[in-house]
Amino acid sequence: MTPSDTPTTPISPDKRLRPITPTGHFMMAHPAHVLALGFGSGLSPKAPGTMGTLWAWGIFILLQHRLTEAQWGWLIVISISLGWWACSVTAKHMQVLDPGSIVWDEIAAFWLVLWLIGPTGFWGQLAAFALFRFFDAAKPGPVAWADQLYHGVDPANDPFAWKKAGWGIMLDDLVAAFCTLLVIALWHAW
């Protein structure tokens, strides 16, 4: 190991991250941006995660009687796989490891919750929304662990840093979805 390989070596100015604030123009510049930014719901100046979750709920209501259980399952599997790609690409282009404006993670995870608790009415879905937002925003225990898992990656030295960041973006919301489902299951069992 040479002295230049040590972790204390300062990053050269051309390798430092230069965060980009997303706009409508940025979103429309790449299909991954459109998906990751939740078709614009992530551009909300306030509470983009909540806006993305509301967008997911609205789309679920529109499609819940049009798709079969199996089609919902495939939609969610594809949403998670495609979301990993879209979140990786968009985070790299924004030069931010976990941008708040990326909301596809909330969308895919909340679809998973709504699919697995169904069929249920408005009040059941509202309770799921409140629980999911609590776990996603407060990040207790395992959600915090998943959220921090890839925050330490260094894009200047790790060629897979953005792919890890994309998976990290998706993972904490999937853990929040699991916690939401666990609370709902315990509620029903009690």
UniProtKB/TrEMBL annotation:
- Major subcellular site: membrane
**Which UniProt keywords are given for this protein, alphabetically ordered?**
Cell inner membrane, Cell membrane, Hydrolase, Lipid degradation, Lipid metabolism, Magnesium, Membrane, Metal-binding, Phospholipid degradation, Phospholipid metabolism, Transmembrane, Transmembrane helix
Domain YutG/PgpA positions: 35-186
Say which domain of life the source belongs to.
Bacteria
- Repressor: is it a keyword of this entry? no
| Broad enzyme group | hydrolase
Instruction: Give the Enzyme Commission number.
Output: 3.1.3.27
Metabolic or biological pathway, per its Swiss-Prot or TrEMBL entry: Phospholipid metabolism; phosphatidylglycerol biosynthesis; phosphatidylglycerol from CDP-diacylglycerol: step 2/2
What reaction gets catalysed by this protein? a 1,2-diacyl-sn-glycero-3-phospho-(1'-sn-glycero-3'-phosphate) + H2O = a 1,2-diacyl-sn-glycero-3-phospho-(1'-sn-glycerol) + phosphate
Q: Which cofactor does it need?
A: Mg(2+)
PANTHER family given for it?
PHOSPHATIDYLGLYCEROPHOSPHATASE A (PTHR36305)
What name does this protein carry? Phosphatidylglycerophosphatase A
Q: Provide the species name.
A: Rhodoferax lithotrophicus
